[in-house]
RNA sequence: GCUGCUAUAGCUCAGUAGGUAGAGCGUAUCCUUGGUAAGGAUAAGGUCACCGGUUCAAAUCCGGUUAGCAGCUCCA
C-alpha cells in the first residue's frame, strides 16, 4: 500500500502501482472525468502514471494552469498528426502550449494556405473522433536518435542531441504518429473537444533569424464549445477595443511617418496624460516623495560608469556636442544618482524618495513598434529611493501599498511575480540572497501571493513585477520594484551614519504606471475608450434642442466651466438624435439635453453613458453628481 | 532587424485586360427648429505613399525606399 496525500491535506491509502486516474476515480467520478493529468510531488505526470511509493498528489483539470497546458500540448500533437497525415513530407520542429492555445512549427516546401488550414482542422477533428490513446515510451538516447533519423525528422535529432546527459528521453505515440516529447499528455485524443486553428505565420527554427524559416500554425482548444466561443468573442472584442483604433477615433494621439515610434499627443490625449500625472503627483506627495527632473542628454562618461554603455548600447541614441560624445537617456537612474551626489547626506535624511516623470528614448526594432504599447520614447513614472539597508522591508511595503492603491483606482486586478538572480549579473551571492529575501519578506508581510520567476531579475538586482489584468482578462506588466546594490557601488554613493563614517546606501527603482504612454493604451483598451469621468477628455456635453435654448444652455455651460468641469456646448444646427449619436460614439460620460421643459425649470435632462436617459434634475444637483464622480474617481 | 502582406479624399473602402479616379461617412454652405443613436439639398476635397524603370501611355506592371499590419526576437 502507498499513502497518498491529497490537495485538501487528507491522506488515503492505495495499493502500490495504482494510477493517478484510479485515485481520481476513488475521489469522485466528476473529478475523474475532468482530470487531465496529475501532479506527483510537484511533477506533472500522465493519468496512467503508477504510484509506487508514498506521494503528494494533485489532480489537474483544465482550470489549472498546468492542466490547461497539458490539454493544449496534446492538441498540438493532434495538429502535428493531422499535418503528417495530409502532408507526409512535412518535418516536425516543436509544438508547445502557449498562453491562449498552442502552436506547432513545420518545415514544409510551400507555406500553408487558409484552405489547407481548414483541411488540417477537419483532420484533427477526425483524429479526436478516433479517440486514439497517447502512449508514453521511455527510450535510450541511441534508440531515440535512431528512431528519428529513420523518420528523417532532423529537427528532432537536433533536439535530442541538445538534451542534457542525464535527461530521460521519452516519446509519445498516438496510433501511427510519434513525437519526441517529455509529456505528459491527456490519456487519448478523444479527451479533446473544441479545437480551432487560428493562423499561420513564419517563425525561425529556434527563434534565430539565421536559421531556416518554418511555418507555424497557431491553434487553440477548450473542453467545451462555449469556452471556445467565449475565447473567439474576446478576440473580436479586443479588436474593437484596440487602442490604435480608438486612439484615432477619440482623437487622443497619432503616430506619423515623420516619427515612427514617437507618438504625438493631441489635446484630448493630453487631458488624459495630465490627469494621470496630477493623480500621480498628489499620491506621491502624500507618501513622502519629492519630485526631480533630470536632463535628457548626458555625456558618455556617465553612461560608461553606469554600465549602460556596455550593456545597453544597442538600444541607445547618441549625439555629439562640441566634439564630446553624448547619449539620450534610456533610463532615469543615472540622472537621479547625480542629484544624490550633488550633496552630502546624513542617515537622518534617508529614505529619500525622488520621483521623476522622465522622458526616455530607446531604440526598439522597427518590427516591434505597436501603437502606444511599444514606442521609442516614453515617460516613465519613475522613482528612486535611497535608503539604509535596514529600511528595505518597510520601504518595499510602502511601495506595494502605493501600487495597490493605484491599480484599484482603475479597477485593474493584478498578480505579482518575484524575479531572482539571472545568469548574467553583477554582485556577490550574499548580496543577492539578502536582496531577494528582503523582497520576499515584504511580500509575505503584506500577505501578497506571488509567483517566483527564477533567473528573471535585472542584472543589478532582483525585482517584483506587477502584472495587471484588464477587462478582457489580458495581462500587462506595468509596475516593477527593483532592488539595487550595484549602482550605489559604481557611483560610490554614501551617507554619513551615526558613527560619523561614510556608508553605502541601497537604491530602489520603481515605476507604477510603467510608461504613461503604455498605461494610456492599456486604459483605453480596458475601458474600451469609455473613460471614467475624472479621466474623460470631455466630461459633459450640453445639447440644446433648438437655437431658442442656446442662451440658457450657455449659462449651464458657463457654470460648469467655472468649476473646472470639462464641458462642451453642441450648438450645431442638428437634430437632437444626431447630437446624441455623436456624443455616444465619442463615449462622453454625460449628455445634457436642454429644451423648453428644462429651460422653464432651471433643469437639465441627463443622459448617462451606458444607462441612457435618466431623467431631468436641477442644474446644481447635476453639478454635484459630476463633481462627486470626479472626486471619487467613479467607474461606469 | 528578419519573413510575409498592405499603402487610392480627413476616415472606411470600391475601381481599372495599362488610356491621368468613385461611394459612404466627415467638412462647408443653404433649407429644415427637430425631445434621447444618422432630416434634406448643393459644394469643396486626391500628383492614387515616395523614388526610379518598362511603355506611345503607369494609380494599375517591375525594382527600390518609407511607413503600417501579422508573426519571430525583445521589452516599460
Structure write-up:
The strands form nine sheets. The chain has an eight-stranded mixed sheet. It has a five-stranded mixed sheet with strand order 2-1-7-4-5. Strands 8, 9, 10, 14 and 15 form a five-stranded antiparallel sheet that branches. Helices cover 36% and strands 28% of the residues. It is α+β, with helices and mostly antiparallel strands and 636 residues long. The protein binds one RNA strand of 76 nucleotides through strand 14, strand 15, strand 23, strand 27 and strand 30.
Low-confidence stretches: none
How many domains make up the coordinates? Answer: 4
What is the CATH class designation of the largest domain? Answer: Alpha Beta
Q: Which strand order spans the largest sheet, edge to edge or round the barrel?
A: 18-22-23-30-27-26-24-25
Report the sheet-strand fraction: 25-35%
CATH superfamily of the largest domain: Bira Bifunctional Protein, Domain 2
| Structure classification | alpha+beta
Topology, number of strands: 35
User: Sheet bearing the most strands, described?
Assistant: 8 strands, mixed
Rg, alpha carbons = 30 Å
Give the CA-based shape.
Answer: globular
Q: What CATH architecture of the largest domain do you see?
A: 2-Layer Sandwich
Number of helices: 20
Helix share bin: 25-40%
User: What's the rounded overall pLDDT mean?
Assistant: 90
Terminal CA distance:
59 Å
Protein name: Threonine--tRNA ligase
Binding site for Zn(2+): 333, 384, 509
Subunit structure: Homodimer.
GO cellular component, one term: cytoplasm
Amino acid at each position: 500500500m502507498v499513502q497518498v496525500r491529497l490537495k485538501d491535506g487528507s491522506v488515503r491509502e492505495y495499493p502500490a502501482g495504482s494510477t493517478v486516474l484510479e485515485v481520481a476515480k476513488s475521489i469522485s467520478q466528476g473529478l475523474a472525468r475532468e482530470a487531465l493529468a496529475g501532479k506527483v510531488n510537484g511533477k506533472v505526470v500522465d493519468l496512467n502514471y503508477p504510484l509506487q511509493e508514498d506521494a503528494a498528489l494533485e489532480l489537474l483539470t483544465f482550470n489549472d494552469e498546468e492542466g490547461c497546458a497539458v490539454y493544449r500540448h496534446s492538441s498540438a500533437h493532434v495538429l502535428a498528426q493531422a499535418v503528417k497525415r495530409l502532408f507526409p513530407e512535412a518535418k516536425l520542429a516543436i509544438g508547445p502550449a502557449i498562453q491562449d492555445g498552442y502552436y506547432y512549427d513545420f518545415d514544409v516546401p510551400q507555406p500553408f494556405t487558409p484552405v489547407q488550414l481548414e483541411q488540417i482542422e477537419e483532420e484533427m477533428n477526425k483524429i479526436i473522433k478516433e479517440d486514439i490513446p497517447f502512449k508514453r515510451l521511455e527510450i535510450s538516447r541511441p534508440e531515440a536518435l535512431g528512431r528519428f533519423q529513420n523518420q528523417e525528422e532532423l529537427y528532432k535529432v537536433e533536439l535530442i542531441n541538445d538534451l542534457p546527459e542525464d535527461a530521460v528521453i521519452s516519446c509519445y505515440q498516438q496510433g501511427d504518429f510519434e513525437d519526441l516529447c517529455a509529456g505528459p499528455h491527456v490519456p487519448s485524443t478523444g479527451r479533446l473537444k473544441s479545437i480551432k486553428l487560428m493562423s499561420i505565420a513564419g517563425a525561425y527554427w529556434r527563434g534565430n533569424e539565421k536559421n531556416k524559416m518554418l511555418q507555424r500554425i497557431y491553434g487553440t482548444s477548450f473542453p467545451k464549445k462555449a469556452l471556445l466561443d467565449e475565447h473567439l468573442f474576446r478576440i473580436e472584442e479586443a479588436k474593437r477595443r484596440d487602442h490604435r483604433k480608438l486612439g484615432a477615433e477619440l482623437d487622443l494621439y497619432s503616430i506619423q511617418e515623420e516619427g515612427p515610434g514617437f507618438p504625438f499627443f493631441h489635446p484630448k490625449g493630453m487631458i488624459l496624460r495630465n490627469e494621470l500625472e496630477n493623480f500621480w503627483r498628489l499620491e506621491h506627495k502624500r507618501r513622502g516623495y519629492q519630485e526631480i527632473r533630470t536632463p535628457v542628454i548626458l555625456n558618455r562618461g556617465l553612461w560608461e560608469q553606469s554600465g549602460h554603455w556596455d550593456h545597453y548600447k544597442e538600444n541607445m541614441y547618441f549625439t555629439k556636442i562640441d566634439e564630446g560624445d553624448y547619449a539620450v537617456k534610456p533610463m532615469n537612474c543615472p540622472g537621479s544618482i547625480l542629484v544624490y551626489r550633488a550633496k552630502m547626506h546624513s542617515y537622518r535624511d534617508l529614505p529619500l524618495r525622488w520621483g521623476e516623470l522622465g522622458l526616455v528614448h530607446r531604440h526598439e526594432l522597427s518590427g516591434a513598434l505597436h501603437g502606444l504599447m511599444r514606442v521609442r520614447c516614453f515617460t516613465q513614472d519613475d522613482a528612486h529611493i535611497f535608503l539604509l539597508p535596514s529600511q528595505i522591508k518597510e520601504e518595499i511595503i510602502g511601495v506595494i501599498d502605493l501600487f495597490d492603491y493605484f491599480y484599484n483606482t482603475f479597477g485593474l486586478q493584478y498578480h505579482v511575480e518575484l524575479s531572482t538572480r539571472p545568469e548574467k549579473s553583477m554582485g556577490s551571492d550574499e548580496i543577492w540572497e539578502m536582496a531577494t529575501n528582503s523582497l520576499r519578506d515584504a511580500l509575505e508581510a503584506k500577505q501578497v501571493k506571488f509567483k517566483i520567476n527564477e533567473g528573471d531579475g535585472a542584472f543589478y538586482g532582483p525585482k517584483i513585477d506587477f502584472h495587471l489584468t484588464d477587462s478582457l482578462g489580458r495581462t500587462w506588466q506595468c509596475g516593477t520594484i527593483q532592488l539595487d546594490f550595484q549602482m550605489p557601488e559604481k557611483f560610490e554613493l554614501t551617507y554619513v551614519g551615526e558613527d560619523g563614517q561614510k556608508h553605502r546606501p541601497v537604491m530602489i527603482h520603481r515605476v507604477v504606471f510603467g510608461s504613461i504612454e503604455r498605461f494610456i493604451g492599456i486604459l483605453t483598451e480596458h475601458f474600451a475608450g469609455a473613460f471614467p469621468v475624472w479621466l474623460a477628455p470631455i466630461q459633459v456635453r450640453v445639447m440644446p434642442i433648438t437655437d431658442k435654448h442656446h442662451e440658457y444652455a450657455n449659462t449651464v455651460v458657463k457654470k460648469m466651466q467655472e468649476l473646472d468641469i470639462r464641458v462642451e456646448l453642441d450648438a450645431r444646427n442638428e437634430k437632437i438624435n444626431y447630437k446624441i449619436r455623436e456624443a455616444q460614439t465619442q463615449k462622453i460620460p454625460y449628455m445634457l439635453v436642454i429644451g423648453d421643459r428644462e429651460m422653464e425649470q432651471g433643469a437639465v435632462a441627463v443622459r448617462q453613458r451606458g444607462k441612457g436617459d435618466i431623467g431631468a434634475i436641477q442644474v446644481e444637483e447635476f453639478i454635484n453628481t459630476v463633481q462627486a464622480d470626479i472626486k471619487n474617481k467613479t467607474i461606469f
